[in-house]
Amino acid sequence: MFKKWIKNWKLKREIKAYARHSAKIMFEFFEEKYDFKDSNINLPYIDFNCPDKMGAVCRTYTDEPEYSNISINFKEAKYVAEIKTKNVFTEYPWYNKDPEIGNKNYECWQEYITILMAHEISHSFEMF
Predict the structure, then answer these.
(1) Helix H segments across the chain?
(2) If we measure between CA atoms, which residue out of 10, 125, 109 comes closest to residue 70?
(3) Backbone angles phi, psi at 39, to 5 degrees
(4) Which has the closest alpha carbon to 108: 13, 38, 8, 15?
(5) Distance (Å, rounded) from C-alpha 17 to C-alpha 37?
(6) Within 10 Å of residue 80's Cβ, how many Cβ atoms?
(7) Residue 91 pairs with which residues in a beta bridge?
(8) Can you give the pTM of this predicted structure?
(9) What is the rounded distance in angstroms from the CA atom of residue 127 to the CA atom of residue 9?
(10) How would you classify residue 55: left for phi > 0, otherwise alpha for psi between -120 and 50, otherwise beta?
(11) Contact 90/76 with Cβ under 8 angstroms?
(12) Could you tell me which of 1, 22, 82, 119 has the fewest CB atoms within 10 Å of its CB?
């Protein structure tokens, strides 16, 4: 049991670190592309407290206008990380055919987390 806890703890750290890294890279890109360096938008806080409702993988919450919290469902993220096979990130039905923001193929959990973070960060920007 302890070995399983250690394995999950290590995977949580890896997923969270990769999610933070992806968010940081995306924010740097958007700051440069849209010139909002002086805005009051901050990197989101990332945690694993997403409620396990309707198979949700992630949720974006905001308490204050300039802060958001991206909450990952660890059970779902762990499932993707452990499968290690090519799969498809399914977007909302009204976006899924869009070539830029629609459904995306991924081959590893790192790609999955990057796509997931892009999706959730878009919600953060929507809220601001």
Answers:
(1) 2-34, 74-83, 109-127
(2) 125
(3) -75, 170
(4) 15
(5) 23
(6) 20
(7) none
(8) 0.74
(9) 31
(10) left
(11) no
(12) 1
Of 47, 19, 37, 7, whose CA–CA distance to 118 is shortest? 19
Confidence at residue 78, expressed as pLDDT on a 0 to 100 scale: 77
Helix (H) or strand (E) holding 32: helix 2-34
29 phi and psi angles, rounded to 5 deg: -60, -50
Q: Which residues of 98-109 are buried (b: 16+ CB within 10 A; e: fewer)?
A: eeeeeebebeeb
Structure tokens at 97: 């055919």
**Which segments of the chain have a pLDDT < 50?**
none
By the 8 A CB rule, do 40 and 66 touch? Answer: yes
Rounded Cα distance, 66 and 36, in Å: 13
Cα 110 from Cα 22, distance rounded (Å): 9
CB 60 within 8 A of CB 120: yes
The residues pairing with 70 across neighbouring beta strands, listed in sequence order, are 46, 60
In whole angstroms, what is the distance from residue 103 CA to residue 91 CA?
Answer: 5
pLDDT in the model for residue 105: 81
Residue 128: predicted pLDDT: 65
